[in-house]
Amino acid sequence: MRETFLYITLGTGDLVRAARFYDATLAPLGLVRRATKDTEIGYGHPDDRRARLWITLPFDGQAATVGNGSMPAFTAISAEAVILFHKAALAHGGSDEGAPGLRPYAPGFFAAYVRDPDGNKLSAVHEG
Q: What CA–CA distance (Å, rounded) separates 52 from 5?
């Protein structure tokens, strides 16, 4: 199967803080840190040879900013994984953008929405 995206990047102003947040928040979704570099960290599935999500200090040296209307949505294997994603995000410096629950987008569309400590919006979705 061909992947739709090679990778996605999100900016941060504090890589150490971002690592604490993403390590905990992505774990319930089965994602692990695949790479740690001086200016970025990468996450992916343990069985994928690549990191598909990169959290990075901006290359141009300017402050990281939030993309208005941007939001990576991660696949969750269960509604419980969505709930754990949301709880981990809030426990590690994130903020609530929509508690776990069914949404009207499709039958069985169970999602939660959070912002990371830099303000990037994320979602976890289980389609059951």
A: 8
Please report, for residues 22, 43, 64, 112, 118, the alpha-carbon distance to residue 101 in angstroms, rounded to integers and kept in the order given: 22, 25, 30, 7, 24
- Per-residue pLDDT of the chain in tens (128 residues, 90 and over written 9): 566 678 999 999 999 999 999 999 999 999 999 999 999 999 999 999 899 999 999 999 999 999 888 999 999 999 999 999 999 999 999 999 999 999 999 999 999 999 999 999 999 999 98
User: What does each C-alpha distance from 43 to 40, 98, 105 come to in angstroms?
Assistant: 10, 23, 27
CB 22 within 8 A of CB 33: yes
At position 84, the amino acid (one-letter code) is: L
Q: How far apart are CA 36 and CA 33, in angstroms?
A: 8
Give this prediction's pTM.
0.93
Enter the tokens of residue 54: 């990169």
